[in-house]
Amino acid sequence: MSADWRSDVLKFWFALGYARWWKRDDALDHQIKQLFLKLWAEKRELPAEAFLADPLTALAAVILFDQFPRNMFRDHADQFATDHLALAIAKEAIARGFDEQLQTDERAFLYTPFQHSENIDDQNRSVLLFNELGDSRYLPFAEKHRDVIQRFGRFPHRNAILGRAPRPAEIAAGDVYPW
């Protein structure tokens, strides 16, 4: 790790590319944990405002708090531990117009915490943001996530990890993993 944590996060993540972002890869999960767990643990103690100096700081923080935990803690509740922080950063970054200064894939990751939220208002905003992004790769996923929240009020595929009992409608629906 260099002295510039933001650069380390962004270079690492965007060097992976689209195909590797969405594919389960235990070796990659391990690598992210080895490289970024300590940074995640240190930075998560800071308030959202600490990451709003500029667009790239906000983006790096969102990736650190939203994407990396999904790799570092796959199949464990800790993967959602900093979702609230990522969402707070994303909301304020967008309010400041930071997203308008980012490239398409960068903007997509700034918007992703809305897609990971179990709040329907966040989901509706996700669809709006991804629609405005204008990249056909991302919008269908935002819509699928929103549809699951609209139907169940939460992501049923998280139930076991979070120790939640499935509701009858979720059991009847079977696997409703959004993608």
UniProtKB/TrEMBL annotation:
Protein known as: DUF924 domain-containing protein
Organism per entry: Sphingomonas hankyongi
